Amino acid sequence: MRHIKGQGAFKRRGLMLVLSSPSGAGKTTIAREILNRDPNLVMSISATTRSIRPGEIEGKDYYFIDKKDFEARINSDNFIEYARVFDNYYGTPKDPVEKAMSAGHDILFDIDWQGTQQLVSKQNIMQDVVTIFILPPNVSELERRLKNRAQDSLAVVKHRMSKVSDELSHYPEYQYVIVNSEIRDSVDQVEQILSAERCKIERQIGLHDFVQNLRNLS
């Protein structure tokens, strides 16, 4: 495991940072900004069966695959989590995450509540998962953001808005909640949460030996 800035004089176990929100609440924008700020954080790239959107890049934003291939990968247990959202599959390939974690990286997940439930239910990784739910300041602002990003038709926007109430009901399942009124403030809050979680005793692999060395030198 490489030495990570901020972990001090001993090794730290990596964590999985999960951001979830209703569509349009801003989790993807927050994710991009926190990645720009923090070189110790890497993005978990999901696979999806939905069509590629303008400006998206294969292998950077998503792995775009067809439904038959996705379902074959489900049957082969190739995903750490997956969900069907708005008639499309989304899932996190297992191998890239395991390789990044073994190299000492923290992993950022931009996933919905269904994927989050799967992550926190896995006994072997649940202690490494930190979950944050992003709320919009109000419903009208959420609808405005969906329309302004111009990625979906009005019919799709309407369908997404019809699901908002159900998506919002899952906020108590998360460890942290942020109301995304201003992107900069929200990113600051995510950064503070990440910093605190990295300092937890249970993540400090070499803490015991470090303290023992200090005691021997005193």
Description:
With 218 residues, the protein is an alpha/beta fold. It has a domain at 16-44 and 106-217: 3-Layer(aba) Sandwich (Rossmann fold). It is 41% helix and 20% strand. The chain has nine helices and nine strands. It has helices at residues 27-37, 67-75, 94-102, 113-121, 139-148, 154-162, 164-168, 183-198, 207-217, and strands spanning 16-20, 41-43, 46-48, 62-64, 79-85, 88-93, 106-110, 129-135, 176-179. The strands form two sheets. It has a five-stranded parallel sheet, sandwiched between helices. A four-stranded mixed sheet has the order 4-3-6-5. Helix 1 (27-37) crosses helix 8. The chain starts with 15 loop residues before the first strand and ends with a helix.
